[in-house]
Amino acid sequence: MEGLMRGSDEQTGALFSYQSPESLVPRDHPLRAIRLVVNAALERLSEPFSKLYSPYGRASIAPEKLLRALLVQAFFGIRSERQLMEQVRYNMLFRWFIGLSMDAPIWDVTVFTKNRDRLLEGDIAREFLLAILADPQVKPLLSSEHFSVDGTLIAAWASMKSFQPKDSSGSPPGPGRNGERDFRGEKRSNQTHESTTDPDARLYRKADGQPAKLAYLGHVLMENRNGLIVDAELTKATGWAERAAAEAMIEDAAPAGRVTLGADKAYDVAAHVARLRALGVTPHVAQNATNRRSAIDRRTTRHPGYALSQTIRKRIEEPFGWIKEAGGFRQTKHRGQERVGWMFTLRAAAYNLIRLPKLFATT
């Protein structure tokens, strides 16, 4: 048997490297296909970006790099922007995707956050989602006739201790950084109380038997061919928000009507069903016949397409699952409806992007 000489454990950190991040990423890495779509979408947003910045003054972080960095945060479930900056410092895959060279300095997290907030002004997250859907490779994957809608609870970045009476009559928490607060016997509602930490958050119970929590509602509209998100919206958590968001999103996605919209029993409300029909939308809503008459009758249920929509609409739990688990958005780390909604929509776009490599491979 041929002998082997023991290798040296000599440290070589002082040596120069002439490799680029591009050379370190495997040719078949799924992020390569995603980056092509992202770059094409960002190119379509060049004009909206220009409107957000002055032609004079100090150069900011390029909005293209900023958005790619936020996508990295969503793809890999990085908890905070501070942790994102730390990982970009040493992760060559992240640097390559964002468009940073090996020796490019990393942004200060405060500067990064201020530049990110500038993109709120132009509703760039939604524009980015639409720019992805407009890609010539993506458009053939989308259905223009059959859709599904649903909403999910997004926990707010606010504790129940912050839910105080609006007239400031509540007793403060006990001493200490996290002092105790006794809520026993106290009636609390959104009419009389609000969070001192995030006033846009609402006390909401998703279903009977579940605890009420400070939250928002995130809504997505999914096309039924491949289960891609075609619109996303975040609202305050109210009992009617899901239906109002569904009507707004389907009207934007199919202004001419003549489409179907699948949904669960929460959408089986006579006024909502009537509104959808007035928009030219066939409501493929699950029947809720508990103690009342359903607004969906044989005119709808007798068609085979109704049963098919009821099967496919359940796939909408897949993007919700990814956004909340892999995307780290079960509880937002931001405050205010505008900022939380922006981040929710960006994660909806990220969900579409992680689906695309496999969908491209099968077409």
Automatic annotation (TrEMBL):
Annotated ranges, domain Transposase IS4-like: 206-353
Start-end of Basic and acidic residues biased regions: 178-205
Domain of life of the native organism: Bacteria
A Pfam family per the record: DUF772
Domain Transposase InsH N-terminal, first and last residues per copy: 21-118
InterPro entries: Transpos_IS5 (IPR047959), Transposase_11 (IPR002559), Transposase_InsH_N (IPR008490)
Keywords per UniProt: DNA recombination, DNA-binding, Transposition
Positions of the UniProt region annotated as Disordered: 163-205
NCBIfam families associated with the record: transpos_IS5_4 (NF033581)
Function (record text): Involved in the transposition of the insertion sequence IS5.
UniProt similarity note: Belongs to the transposase 11 family.
Name the UniProt record assigns to this protein: Transposase
Organism: Labrys monachus
